[in-house]
Amino acid sequence: MKKTLSFLFALLALPMTACGYHASTPVSVSETVVTDEVPDSLNTEEAVIRQVDAVYDYWNAMRMHYDEDVPTIDERFGSREWLRVRREVEAIDRECECGGFFDFGDEGPLDAWTYDCYEGYVSANDIQVQLQPNGMAEVRFLVKDAVTINGIPIRWLMRVEDGQWRVHDIIFEQDNNYDLLMNMRAYADDGKFNKNFNIYKYLSAMKVQVARLQGVSKDDISFDAYGLVDVDLDGTPEVFVQNKSGFYNVVFSIAGDKPSVLANSFGATDIYFFEHGVGAQGGCGTGCMMSDCTLVKDSKAVVSFRTIDEYGMDGELALSTKTRNGKKITAEEYDKLFAQLGAQIDLSAIMHDIE
Fold first, then answer.
1. Tens digit of pLDDT for each residue in 72-95?
2. Which of 142, 158, 305, 341 has the most CB atoms around it within 10 Å of its CB?
3. pTM value?
4. If phi over 0 gives left and psi between -120 and 50 gives alpha, with beta otherwise, what is residue 135?
5. Please, where are the H alpha helices in the chain?
């Protein structure tokens, strides 16, 4: 039985605080608002637990009496987004000779629903449910089989779709909270985009832009690795470029075949992502915190806005300056722009060396 999960993807830097220091909880999905009506009969912990049990009843029945004419477990219980990404992963696996997303070691593919539990009857145990707004729930449990007595900790993010609770994401807690949906999306994006992508076509122009931002010569700029991420899920990738020293990381749009900076992090700042944008946040000197945000649509910058907060020796906020495209705006105007970013999200990318 498999005991560990290989980590294939380098996570992009992601602070837990949003632009302007608004509290924001990262999510690994792009579609946070559920439009399906949630009846009272479903909006209970008991209803969620019944569905979790139903998943494993179905899995066991399919294993004992496989029938290719009935829905797969993903089709039967996965959310629309889960199923879409899973199919993209399967398409990439069919095209490449790379083994496959779920192929770890020599014992065959890992099962997303059971981890490495497949001896005898498989079940969910000690189920804990936390209901959330908009027909969503976070579920933790131990998946056990005939020989895995202590169980494997698994976490599901579930949502109501098509009149039932469906599994939207699966997280392997014992493997440093390995997020399957996020990493499947990165795998699928890389498979779709990278086979026809040439970083060297854009590299010179990227260096010119970063050199201008840093006030140095183009020859002083070096990039060591890149990854492709689809920030606004429009089918056109954005390019995340790293300097391995950790001094600077940049997200570029390549819409129209011309790179332009969407977000950059130098020194004490970090890159982070939202449903509808990208930005950087961190220190800008002694007693100074800065946050840059860019709304993104169709892989292009819609508007950029910034806040710089300066603190006195007593640690109290002394001055807060907010701008939109370089012009001062009020805090109310800034908050309205910030709200358009949506929820903070996790993204990951397969990183490729730049020679």
1. 999 999 999 999 999 999 888 888
2. 305
3. 0.74
4. left
5. 45-64, 73-77, 80-95, 180-193, 203-214, 331-339
- The first and second tokens of residue 169, run together, are 């994401």
Adjacent-strand bridge partners of 288: 310
Strands 317-324 and 248-253, how do they pair? unpaired
- Residue 270's φ and ψ, nearest 5 degrees, are -130, 150
Question: For the range 255-258, what are the long-range contacts, defined as Cβ-Cβ under 8 Å and sequence gap of 24 or more?
Answer: 255/298, 255/299, 255/300, 256/300, 258/205
User: What is the pLDDT confidence band of residue 25, given thresholds at 50, 70 and 90?
Assistant: very low
Please give the Cα distance from 22 to 120 (Å, whole number).
48
At residue 153, φ and ψ (nearest 5 deg) are -70, 130
**Token pair for 260:** 């332009």
Q: Which residues contact 39 (CB under 8 A, 6 or more apart)?
A: 163
Residues contacting 336, CB < 8 A, separation 6+? none
Question: Which pairs with CB-CB distance under 8 Å and at least 24 residues apart come from 236-245?
Answer: 236/298, 236/299, 237/189, 237/193, 237/197, 238/262, 238/278, 238/296, 238/299, 239/199, 239/202, 239/206, 240/12, 240/271, 240/349, 241/206, 241/354, 242/351
Give the span between the Cα atoms of 10 and 190, in whole angstroms: 12
List, for residues 125-176, the tens digit of each pLDDT value. Answer: 999 999 998 899 999 999 999 999 899 999 999 999 989 999 999 999 988 8
